[in-house]
Protein backbone atom coordinates (compact mmCIF):
# COMPACT_ATOMS: atom_id res chain seq x y z
CA UNK A 1 0.00 0.00 0.00
CA UNK A 2 1.34 3.43 -0.93
CA UNK A 3 2.02 6.04 1.74
CA UNK A 4 -0.87 8.14 0.43
CA UNK A 5 -3.15 5.12 0.39
CA UNK A 6 -2.02 4.12 3.86
CA UNK A 7 -2.85 7.54 5.28
CA UNK A 8 -6.09 7.61 3.35
CA UNK A 9 -7.13 4.53 5.30
CA UNK A 10 -5.82 5.97 8.59
CA UNK A 11 -7.71 9.23 8.06
CA UNK A 12 -10.90 7.29 7.31
CA UNK A 13 -10.46 5.49 10.63
CA UNK A 14 -9.91 8.84 12.38
CA UNK A 15 -13.10 10.24 10.80
CA UNK A 16 -15.04 7.34 12.28
CA UNK A 17 -13.46 7.92 15.71
CA UNK A 18 -14.34 11.63 15.64
CA UNK A 19 -17.96 10.70 16.33
CA UNK A 20 -16.90 9.64 19.82
CA UNK A 21 -15.79 13.17 20.68
CA UNK A 22 -18.21 15.15 22.83
CA UNK A 23 -20.08 17.88 21.01
CA UNK A 24 -20.52 21.34 22.47
CA UNK A 25 -24.04 20.51 23.61
CA UNK A 26 -22.78 17.80 25.95
CA UNK A 27 -20.10 20.04 27.38
CA UNK A 28 -22.71 22.77 27.92
CA UNK A 29 -24.90 20.32 29.83
CA UNK A 30 -21.93 19.45 32.02
CA UNK A 31 -21.21 23.12 32.69
CA UNK A 32 -24.85 23.68 33.66
CA UNK A 33 -24.95 20.55 35.85
CA UNK A 34 -25.53 21.16 39.54
CA UNK A 35 -22.84 18.89 40.94
CA UNK A 36 -20.13 16.31 40.22
CA UNK A 37 -22.59 13.41 40.36
CA UNK A 38 -24.59 15.01 37.56
CA UNK A 39 -21.44 15.22 35.44
CA UNK A 40 -20.86 11.50 35.88
CA UNK A 41 -24.43 10.81 34.81
CA UNK A 42 -24.01 12.90 31.64
CA UNK A 43 -20.70 11.23 30.78
CA UNK A 44 -22.35 7.86 31.33
CA UNK A 45 -24.47 8.58 28.25
CA UNK A 46 -21.37 9.09 26.05
CA UNK A 47 -18.35 7.15 24.84
CA UNK A 48 -16.97 7.41 28.38
CA UNK A 49 -19.58 4.98 29.71
CA UNK A 50 -17.33 1.91 29.51
CA UNK A 51 -14.47 3.67 31.29
CA UNK A 52 -16.82 4.92 34.00
CA UNK A 53 -18.14 1.42 34.55
CA UNK A 54 -14.79 0.51 36.13
CA UNK A 55 -14.88 3.49 38.51
CA UNK A 56 -15.08 2.64 42.20
CA UNK A 57 -15.40 6.17 43.52
CA UNK A 58 -14.96 9.85 42.77
CA UNK A 59 -11.28 9.65 43.68
CA UNK A 60 -10.74 7.39 40.64
CA UNK A 61 -12.08 9.94 38.16
CA UNK A 62 -8.68 11.12 36.89
CA UNK A 63 -7.65 7.50 36.35
CA UNK A 64 -10.84 6.91 34.36
CA UNK A 65 -9.98 9.81 32.05
CA UNK A 66 -6.39 8.60 31.77
CA UNK A 67 -7.56 5.10 30.91
CA UNK A 68 -9.89 6.41 28.21
CA UNK A 69 -7.15 8.55 26.65
CA UNK A 70 -4.67 5.68 26.85
CA UNK A 71 -7.05 3.40 24.96
CA UNK A 72 -7.41 6.02 22.23
CA UNK A 73 -3.64 6.33 21.82
CA UNK A 74 -3.25 2.57 21.66
CA UNK A 75 -6.07 2.19 19.14
CA UNK A 76 -4.73 4.89 16.82
CA UNK A 77 -1.25 3.42 17.01
CA UNK A 78 -2.53 0.13 15.54
CA UNK A 79 -3.44 1.66 12.17
CA UNK A 80 -1.06 4.60 11.69
CA UNK A 81 1.65 3.79 9.12
CA UNK A 82 4.41 5.58 11.07
CA UNK A 83 4.08 5.03 14.82
CA UNK A 84 6.22 8.10 15.53
CA UNK A 85 3.23 10.21 14.52
CA UNK A 86 1.48 8.97 17.65
CA UNK A 87 4.58 8.76 19.84
CA UNK A 88 5.38 12.43 19.27
CA UNK A 89 2.03 13.29 20.84
CA UNK A 90 2.83 11.15 23.90
CA UNK A 91 6.35 12.40 24.39
CA UNK A 92 5.55 15.01 27.02
CA UNK A 93 4.13 12.26 29.23
CA UNK A 94 7.44 10.36 29.03
CA UNK A 95 9.31 13.42 30.22
CA UNK A 96 6.67 14.11 32.86
CA UNK A 97 7.36 10.65 34.26
CA UNK A 98 11.09 11.33 34.33
CA UNK A 99 10.45 14.53 36.30
CA UNK A 100 8.24 12.68 38.76
CA UNK A 101 10.79 9.92 39.31
CA UNK A 102 13.68 12.34 39.77
CA UNK A 103 11.71 14.54 42.19
CA UNK A 104 10.74 11.40 44.08
CA UNK A 105 14.40 10.39 44.25
CA UNK A 106 15.40 13.82 45.54
CA UNK A 107 12.56 13.72 48.08
CA UNK A 108 13.67 10.35 49.44
CA UNK A 109 17.25 11.57 49.76
CA UNK A 110 16.06 14.43 51.97
CA UNK A 111 13.98 12.18 54.21
CA UNK A 112 10.69 12.30 52.34
CA UNK A 113 8.61 9.69 50.56
CA UNK A 114 8.19 8.55 46.99
CA UNK A 115 5.37 10.19 45.00
CA UNK A 116 4.77 7.65 42.27
CA UNK A 117 1.05 8.41 42.36
CA UNK A 118 1.78 11.24 39.92
CA UNK A 119 3.14 8.88 37.24
CA UNK A 120 1.09 8.30 34.10
CA UNK A 121 0.67 5.42 31.67
CA UNK A 122 0.22 7.81 28.74
CA UNK A 123 3.86 7.98 27.65
CA UNK A 124 5.22 6.36 24.50
CA UNK A 125 7.64 4.21 26.51
CA UNK A 126 6.60 1.38 28.89
CA UNK A 127 6.33 2.97 32.33
CA UNK A 128 7.63 -0.09 34.16
CA UNK A 129 10.81 -0.01 32.08
CA UNK A 130 11.40 3.68 32.82
CA UNK A 131 10.88 3.09 36.55
CA UNK A 132 13.15 0.03 36.66
CA UNK A 133 15.98 1.66 34.70
CA UNK A 134 15.99 4.79 36.86
CA UNK A 135 15.60 2.89 40.13
CA UNK A 136 18.52 0.55 39.28
CA UNK A 137 20.56 3.40 37.71
CA UNK A 138 20.65 1.52 34.38
CA UNK A 139 20.52 4.85 32.57
CA UNK A 140 22.18 3.46 29.43
CA UNK A 141 18.94 1.62 28.65
CA UNK A 142 16.86 4.79 28.58
CA UNK A 143 15.73 6.46 25.31
CA UNK A 144 15.82 10.10 24.17
CA UNK A 145 19.33 10.83 25.45
CA UNK A 146 18.16 10.35 29.03
CA UNK A 147 21.23 8.17 29.67
CA UNK A 148 23.33 11.35 29.96
CA UNK A 149 20.60 13.81 30.93
CA UNK A 150 19.52 12.09 34.15
CA UNK A 151 23.04 11.93 35.66
CA UNK A 152 23.44 15.62 34.72
CA UNK A 153 20.18 16.49 36.54
CA UNK A 154 21.26 14.52 39.59
CA UNK A 155 24.61 16.33 39.64
CA UNK A 156 22.85 19.71 39.44
CA UNK A 157 20.61 18.80 42.35
CA UNK A 158 23.46 17.41 44.47
CA UNK A 159 25.45 20.60 43.99
CA UNK A 160 22.70 23.17 44.37
CA UNK A 161 19.45 21.45 45.45
CA UNK A 162 17.96 23.37 42.51
CA UNK A 163 15.01 21.28 41.29
CA UNK A 164 13.94 24.07 38.91
CA UNK A 165 17.24 23.82 37.04
CA UNK A 166 16.83 20.06 36.70
CA UNK A 167 13.32 20.62 35.31
CA UNK A 168 14.68 23.18 32.86
CA UNK A 169 17.20 20.66 31.52
CA UNK A 170 14.48 18.02 31.13
CA UNK A 171 12.11 20.40 29.32
CA UNK A 172 14.91 21.54 27.01
CA UNK A 173 15.64 17.95 26.01
CA UNK A 174 11.95 17.17 25.53
CA UNK A 175 11.50 19.87 22.91
CA UNK A 176 14.76 18.88 21.22
CA UNK A 177 13.52 15.30 20.90
CA UNK A 178 10.06 16.44 19.75
CA UNK A 179 11.59 18.51 16.96
CA UNK A 180 14.01 15.73 16.01
CA UNK A 181 11.12 13.26 15.73
CA UNK A 182 9.07 15.72 13.66
CA UNK A 183 11.94 16.21 11.22
CA UNK A 184 12.50 12.45 10.96
CA UNK A 185 8.88 12.07 9.91
CA UNK A 186 9.61 14.44 7.01
CA UNK A 187 6.15 15.99 7.24
CA UNK A 188 6.31 19.80 6.98
CA UNK A 189 2.95 20.28 8.70
CA UNK A 190 4.11 18.34 11.76
CA UNK A 191 7.42 20.23 11.94
CA UNK A 192 5.55 23.55 11.71
CA UNK A 193 3.15 22.48 14.47
CA UNK A 194 5.96 21.44 16.81
CA UNK A 195 7.75 24.74 16.22
CA UNK A 196 4.51 26.57 17.07
CA UNK A 197 4.24 24.57 20.28
CA UNK A 198 7.79 25.57 21.20
CA UNK A 199 6.90 29.25 20.62
CA UNK A 200 3.81 28.86 22.77
CA UNK A 201 5.66 27.17 25.60
CA UNK A 202 8.30 29.91 25.51
CA UNK A 203 5.63 32.61 25.83
CA UNK A 204 3.85 30.75 28.61
CA UNK A 205 7.13 30.30 30.50
CA UNK A 206 8.06 33.93 29.95
CA UNK A 207 4.81 35.14 31.49
CA UNK A 208 5.33 32.93 34.55
CA UNK A 209 8.90 34.18 34.95
CA UNK A 210 7.72 37.78 34.61
CA UNK A 211 5.31 37.15 37.46
CA UNK A 212 8.25 36.17 39.69
CA UNK A 213 10.37 39.17 38.77
CA UNK A 214 12.89 37.61 36.37
CA UNK A 215 14.84 39.88 34.01
CA UNK A 216 15.99 39.19 30.43
CA UNK A 217 19.24 37.50 31.46
CA UNK A 218 17.45 35.27 33.95
CA UNK A 219 14.70 34.33 31.50
CA UNK A 220 16.90 33.48 28.51
CA UNK A 221 18.10 30.04 29.77
CA UNK A 222 14.46 28.96 30.10
CA UNK A 223 13.70 29.68 26.45
CA UNK A 224 13.71 26.64 24.13
CA UNK A 225 15.36 26.74 20.72
CA UNK A 226 13.60 25.45 17.63
CA UNK A 227 10.56 27.71 17.47
CA UNK A 228 9.86 30.37 14.87
CA UNK A 229 10.62 33.30 17.20
CA UNK A 230 14.17 34.17 18.20
CA UNK A 231 14.67 33.32 21.87
CA UNK A 232 16.69 36.46 22.50
CA UNK A 233 13.83 38.60 21.23
CA UNK A 234 11.37 36.68 23.37
CA UNK A 235 13.44 36.99 26.52
CA UNK A 236 13.71 40.76 26.01
CA UNK A 237 9.91 41.05 26.16
CA UNK A 238 9.91 40.21 29.86
CA UNK A 239 10.63 43.84 30.72
CA UNK A 240 7.68 45.04 28.63
CA UNK A 241 3.95 45.03 29.53
CA UNK A 242 2.22 41.86 28.35
CA UNK A 243 -0.19 43.96 26.29
CA UNK A 244 2.69 44.87 23.94
CA UNK A 245 3.97 41.34 23.36
CA UNK A 246 1.58 40.57 20.50
CA UNK A 247 2.62 43.66 18.55
CA UNK A 248 6.31 42.86 19.07
CA UNK A 249 5.95 39.39 17.54
CA UNK A 250 3.04 39.99 15.14
CA UNK A 251 5.11 38.45 12.34
CA UNK A 252 4.41 35.06 13.97
CA UNK A 253 1.21 33.02 14.11
CA UNK A 254 1.06 33.27 17.89
CA UNK A 255 1.77 36.99 17.93
CA UNK A 256 -1.36 37.57 15.90
CA UNK A 257 -3.59 35.84 18.45
CA UNK A 258 -2.17 37.30 21.67
CA UNK A 259 -4.18 40.49 21.22
CA UNK A 260 -7.36 38.62 22.14
CA UNK A 261 -6.34 38.25 25.78
CA UNK A 262 -7.72 40.54 28.48
CA UNK A 263 -4.68 41.43 30.58
CA UNK A 264 -6.58 43.41 33.22
CA UNK A 265 -7.38 40.60 35.66
CA UNK A 266 -4.01 39.95 37.29
CA UNK A 267 -1.39 37.29 36.61
CA UNK A 268 -3.45 34.27 37.67
CA UNK A 269 -6.29 35.02 35.26
CA UNK A 270 -3.86 36.12 32.57
CA UNK A 271 -1.94 32.84 32.72
CA UNK A 272 -5.18 30.83 32.55
CA UNK A 273 -6.37 32.89 29.56
CA UNK A 274 -3.03 32.47 27.80
CA UNK A 275 -3.02 28.70 28.31
CA UNK A 276 -6.55 28.45 26.88
CA UNK A 277 -5.64 30.60 23.89
CA UNK A 278 -2.52 28.54 23.18
CA UNK A 279 -4.41 25.23 23.38
CA UNK A 280 -7.02 26.57 20.95
CA UNK A 281 -4.32 27.91 18.63
CA UNK A 282 -2.52 24.56 18.51
CA UNK A 283 -5.77 22.85 17.57
CA UNK A 284 -6.67 25.44 14.93
CA UNK A 285 -3.27 25.11 13.32
CA UNK A 286 -3.12 21.31 13.10
CA UNK A 287 -6.86 20.86 12.39
CA UNK A 288 -6.50 22.73 9.10
CA UNK A 289 -5.49 19.32 7.72
CA UNK A 290 -9.10 18.13 8.03
CA UNK A 291 -9.73 19.51 4.54
CA UNK A 292 -7.52 16.71 3.19
CA UNK A 293 -8.55 13.06 3.27
CA UNK A 294 -4.94 11.83 3.08
CA UNK A 295 -2.96 14.34 5.18
CA UNK A 296 -1.02 12.68 8.04
CA UNK A 297 -1.67 15.78 10.16
CA UNK A 298 -5.22 14.48 10.68
CA UNK A 299 -3.83 12.01 13.20
CA UNK A 300 -2.29 14.54 15.65
CA UNK A 301 -5.28 16.83 15.03
CA UNK A 302 -7.66 14.19 16.34
CA UNK A 303 -5.36 13.27 19.23
CA UNK A 304 -5.00 16.92 20.26
CA UNK A 305 -8.79 17.33 20.07
CA UNK A 306 -9.11 14.34 22.39
CA UNK A 307 -6.51 15.77 24.77
CA UNK A 308 -8.42 19.06 24.74
CA UNK A 309 -11.66 17.27 25.50
CA UNK A 310 -10.11 15.53 28.51
CA UNK A 311 -8.75 18.85 29.72
CA UNK A 312 -12.22 20.42 29.45
CA UNK A 313 -13.77 17.56 31.42
CA UNK A 314 -11.16 17.92 34.16
CA UNK A 315 -11.72 21.70 34.38
CA UNK A 316 -15.48 21.19 34.67
CA UNK A 317 -15.05 18.48 37.31
CA UNK A 318 -12.75 20.65 39.45
CA UNK A 319 -15.14 23.59 39.14
CA UNK A 320 -18.14 21.51 40.22
CA UNK A 321 -16.30 20.05 43.18
CA UNK A 322 -15.31 23.57 44.26
CA UNK A 323 -18.74 25.06 43.45
CA UNK A 324 -17.16 27.43 40.94
CA UNK A 325 -18.86 30.16 38.95
CA UNK A 326 -20.40 28.91 35.68
CA UNK A 327 -19.57 32.04 33.69
CA UNK A 328 -15.92 31.81 34.71
CA UNK A 329 -15.96 28.12 33.82
CA UNK A 330 -17.26 28.86 30.33
CA UNK A 331 -14.36 31.24 29.75
CA UNK A 332 -11.90 28.47 30.57
CA UNK A 333 -13.33 26.02 28.04
CA UNK A 334 -11.11 25.13 25.09
CA UNK A 335 -12.95 24.76 21.83
CA UNK A 336 -13.12 21.52 19.89
CA UNK A 337 -13.21 20.97 16.17
CA UNK A 338 -16.66 19.48 16.04
CA UNK A 339 -19.87 21.36 16.63
Q: Can you walk me through this structure?
A:
With 339 residues, this protein is mainly alpha-helical. The protein has a domain at 187-295: V-type ATP synthase subunit C fold. Helices cover 66% and strands 0% of the residues. It has helices at residues 3-18, 24-32, 36-43, 49-52, 61-79, 84-109, 127-135, 146-160, 163-185, 188-211, 216-219, 231-236, 245-248, 253-257, 266-287, 298-321, 326-332. Helix 6 (84-109) packs parallel to helix 7 (127-135) and helix 10 (188-211) runs antiparallel to helix 15 (266-287). The longest helix is centred in the first third of the chain and has 26 residues, at 84-109. The chain starts with a helix and ends in a 7-residue tail after the last helix. The mean pLDDT is 92.
Strand percent estimate: under 5%
Shape: globular
Mean pLDDT: 92
Kindly state the percentage of residues in helix. Answer: 55-70%
Straight-line distance between termini: 34 Å
Within the CATH hierarchy, at the fold level, what is the topology of the domain at 187-295?
V-type ATP synthase subunit C fold
Question: Tally of extended strands?
Answer: 0
Count of runs of 4 or more consecutive helical residues: 17
Based on the coordinates given, report the CATH architecture of the domain at 187-295: Up-down Bundle
Q: What is the string of SSEs from the N terminus onward?
A: HHHHHHHHHHHHHHHHH
Uncertain residue ranges: none
Amino acid sequence: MSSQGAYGYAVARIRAMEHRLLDQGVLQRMIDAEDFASILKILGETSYSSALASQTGGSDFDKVLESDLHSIYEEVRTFVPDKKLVDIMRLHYDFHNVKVLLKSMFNVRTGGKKRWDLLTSLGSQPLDDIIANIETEEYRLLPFGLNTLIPACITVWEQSRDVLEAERLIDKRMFEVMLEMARELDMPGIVSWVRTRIDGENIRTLLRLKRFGYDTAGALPFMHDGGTIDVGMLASLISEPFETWGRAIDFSDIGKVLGGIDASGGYSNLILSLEKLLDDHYLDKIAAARYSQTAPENIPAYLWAKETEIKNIRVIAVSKRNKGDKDHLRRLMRHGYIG
